[in-house]
Amino acid sequence: MSGSALYETFARAPLTFERGEGCWLESPSGERYLDFAGGIAVNSLGHAHPHLVAALTEQAQKLWHVSNLYEIPNQRRLAERLVANSFADKVFFTNSGAEALECAIKTARRYHYAKGHGERFRTITFEGAFHGRTLATIAAGGQAKYLEGFGPKADGFDQVAFGDVDAAEALIGPETAAILVEPVQGEGGIRVFPATGLRRLRELCDKHDLLLMFDEVQCGVGRTGKLFAYEWTGIEPDVMAIAKGIGGGFPMGACLATDEAAAAMTPGVHGTTFGGNPLAMAVGNAVLDVVLADGFLDEVNRKALLFKQGLAAIADESPEIVDEIRGTGLLLGIKCRVPNTKISAALRDQHLLTVPAGDNVIRLLPPLIVSDDEIREGLSRIRAGVRAVADETQAAEPRQARA
Question: How far apart are CA 390 and CA 283, in angstroms?
Answer without folding.
Answer: 43
